[in-house]
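Changelog-linked ticket: 6-O-phosphono-beta-D-glucopyranose example.
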Amino acid sequence: MNNQISAAKKDEIRKVADPCTVVIFGASGDLTQRKLMPSLFSLSCEGLLAEQFSVVGVARSEMTDDSFRDQIRAGVEKFARLKPADCDLWDAFSKNMLYHRGNYDDPQTYKDLSKLLAKIDKNVGGACNVLFYLSTPPQLYPIIVKQLGQAGLAQQSDGHWRRIIIEKPFGHDLPSATELNQQVHDVFDEHQVYRIDHYLGKETVQNLLVFRFANAIFEPLWSRNYIDHVQITVAEEVGLGSRAGYYDTAGVMRDMFQNHLLQLLTLVSMEPPAEYDATALRDEKVKVLKAMQRIKPEEVGQYTVRAQYRTYRDEPGVAKGTNTPTFAAVKLFINNWRWRNVPFYLRSGKALGDKMTEINIQFRHVPHLMFPLKPGQQLPPNVLGLCIQPNEGMNLRFETKVPGAGMRTRSVDMNFTYEQDFGKNTLPDAYERLILDALHGDATLFTRSDEIELAWGLVDPILQGWDSEFSPVLAFYESGTWGPGKSDEFMQADGRKWHYACSDC
Ligand code: BG6
């Protein structure tokens, strides 16, 4: 292992997970290959998994244990933060990696899985604690959960645990999310359920909490008294990729806003939780979601922009003439004491100018300026950029005097980057953090059932509005730009503009 890894390991305060088995449903899929197994291998390299640790991959494809291991190894080589060349644990890790072929709706699959777990427990140990991971198409979630229940696999006994991670999308709208919550709760207690939003596993997203609540200097400014508005941008350079089947029925509002963007919003705006624990933190996020002003379907023209990149309709697999938006901008308000009348502008889209996630806090203008300005001129406001990815860090833009005669000012940046202070490649993948937390039984960075439903409750009326006569016209934008002109006009109408505090745009 290189020096940076060892240093990170030395500083590591996370403890080793319990002996256990992770059962992945959808084991032949892309997520398993790109994220789940690479993350588990990196965790194993970091010494964070118990010796009695196994993985069972469940899927419908015909595969042997060996061909499964080969497939996983290819993914680990390509995508893992720590690869077999960085740590010599591949043989030990892959030895306890088994493949279990079966149909998800066949009770026999689960009877056999039960026997397999008993066998692992006898041979390796640690198979009484089981983390199920649902990484299949979402329509299979209720089927798998029900079958797990009927096979008695969700039952915890003798101090051993059974947990389940459920991938997004969690529902398609509020009624389906509520129904799925009920189906899950028929089998698992809420404390066994981990609904994943991988944005919460990103270091820089967690750093939002540290930034706000471990420093005394920012929080006094963090309200309507000093903040003019907040912008949250989650931009992607890539287009649709090969996910037309899912994406064309989802669109950007379901794919990105209902989860990632609203999660970022809650973390930026919530009150300080008294403790860093799952209940306290999620209670505060829920309070924000409850205080948010719902955009009514008839108001979507005023509060939203929706657009599609020009070549989207040519992508293989999308419906002919589809109106699915690949970009949206939304203005939201939180009706509470801290944020009353402070707009939160959220935007996200595919095929944009760059991959970039940032939160920009624009502060109010100074109440009185003693320096002479030309008539109508205003100094630029201070902007704090919380840079989530890819230039992880933060950036504070403020005014300074230009050297020389007079009192001319110019905006300058003060910034911190993770890379400069902590070195390159020190940020673990979001999935590493989240899977490890689930193995520890820590649900702080997972979404609770009420949170998911409240988020859908905000998104549904917008989607209904977009399907109605009140919808803003679907705008189009060229790939590689920053969205449609309408998005800039949307800000200009409020006398504001989009910031790019973390990048060079
Ligand atoms: C996923 C969305 O949740 O997040 C994808 O389904 C999107 O459409 C992805 O590309 C973005 O994640 P990240 O970590 O690359 O910003």
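Closing comment: Example verified and attached. The chain has 15 helices and 15 strands. The chain has two domains: 3-167, 200-423+449-504.
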